[in-house]
Design brief:
four-stranded mixed sheet, 6 helices, globular
């Protein structure tokens, strides 16, 4: 078990849950992201020691060589969806997309509306607006170099962090909007 969105199979394969991103656990002993330990514990409770079924989409491996999959428990639950629904993760949208994007976005929106998990626990210092990249689906604080370097044709402006997340954009890992 690595964190809230990655597991190690008995075969030695690392599986990254397709379409979601959980807060990062600091494996070096420092402070991780807000809600990282809770997401890790919930993931562990769902899959540790259990046989899971992997279902794939169009893209089967990420740039790190990990398998990308929808992970299902023996009772048929999709762990990716459970983690989104409970506010342990957010949608990880990429330019290539994935089949269950709408379902996952609905699960995230319901968690947001209900202030579940990270949506109720994690506070972020708001910015006056946010810059989104329509090509990468990442949003940034207005001062972030990655946001300010976005090509004009790909640039979208959000009035709030909520608006960006509601539309399925994910926060920049550098400026942490």
């Amino acid at each position: 078990m690595y964190d809230g969105d990655t597991v190690l199979l008995d075969t030695g394969d690392k599986v990254r849950y397709l379409g979601i991103d959980a807060p990062e656990v600091d494996h070096e002993g420092g402070a991780g992201d807000c809600y990282a330990l809770q997401a890790w514990r919930r993931n562990k409770g769902l899959v540790e020691g259990r046989k899971v079924q992997l279902r794939y989409d169009e893209v089967r491996r990420d740039e790190h060589g990990r398998l990308l999959a929808y992970v299902h428990t023996p009772d048929g639950r999709c762990v990716n969806t459970v983690l989104l629904r409970e506010g342990c993760a957010l949608v990880f949208r990429t330019p290539k997309g994935f089949e269950r994007f709408r379902e996952f976005l609905d699960a995230q929106r319901n968690a947001m509306k209900g202030s579940k998990g990270l949506w109720g626990e994690c506070r972020v210092q708001p910015a006056p607006f946010y810059l989104g990249n329509q090509r990468s689906y990442v949003f940034h604080r207005p001062s972030c170099p990655f946001g300010t370097q976005t090509a004009r044709r790909n640039l979208v402006r959000f009035n709030s962090r909520w608006d960006a997340l509601w539309d399925g954009y994910r926060p920049c890992r550098r400026c942490r909007p």
